[in-house]
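Ticket #4471: structure export looks truncated?
Reporter: QA, pipeline team
Priority: medium

Steps to reproduce: submit the single chain below to the structure queue and open the exported record.
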Amino acid sequence: MELVSICISTWNRAPDLKLLFESILKQDYFNLELCIVDNASLDGTFRLVQEYKEIFSNRGIPVNYELLPAPNNNAIQTINQAMRMGTGKYLMIMDDDAYLLKSDVISRLVSQFGADPNCGIVGTNVRDIKGFSQLMITTLKGEFLDATGRIIYYNFHGAGAMFKRDVMQRLHYYDESFVIYMNELDIALRCIAMGYNVWLDMDSVVIHKGTVDMNACTKKAIFAIRNYNRCIRRNFTGLLKWRCLTLQTIMTFGYFAERILMWDNYKKRCIFPLIYRTILYNLVDFTRRQPKNKISTSTYLRLPDIQLCIYNRIKRSFTSRISWSIFHKQGIRGFK
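Actual output as written to the record:
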């Protein structure tokens, strides 16, 4: 039984972290270690970790805990810090507001690596507290797919996933310049480019309490947009790259306009500096040379080309958003 390092970055979520600890204690896989980076929490997280450290120790599970002296706003750095603490053959990342639904999740994920020696990453079926999927899986045409069982894909959800530690070391972990968002897509594509497979075990369910902020006209939106464009630039070639970037740019401004129309309580005057900063971030990033990931020869979900799948997904999202904005009947304002 190989050692699995469960890597957690946490900040002021002690009640949620307790649920995660309890779900880990219920697992039928026992060769574990916990690697926790506390981002200077002030809500009693330290006391909670010390309490459960003794409980885990009684189960033979060591807990490596590091308390940062001040909060680090770069979420990717703290996640990488937790992973670098791990000594197991496998590194499992878990969000501090997520928990394992069943007792066999870890053992199932480990078994996927045994089933495919070329596997680098195994993702889970991440769902919200109402049971809705938080990972959108699409076909070549960009249509959503209700997948079951074990599937090969080009992306995963970062709230719960497992990596081979030596693969992550070769990939140099997450790209910390992303700060937040799209880091999973980036590392999955880099993993594929290096010849490894990315699998999803849809029978391994992780419940993630966190949801997307629908009123996300904040600096987080800038990173989401910039990082998606960066993934396109790194992995697309030729005319398809420019078609995809054009669609994504139009989607960007549609995104901001949609949020203004949907939310009465949003401070409209803030949208103009936010749009300016979004353009500035993207222009500055565009001048930087991006490493190319050659992934076009891979076949995922029987897709001949990952690039085409991502493009059709953006295209479908674009047309769906326009359709919703004009014809929706939910009573929320949209484009008229």
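Status: closed, not a bug. The export was complete when the record was re-opened. Leaving a note from the reviewer for reference: The longest strand covers residues 197-208.
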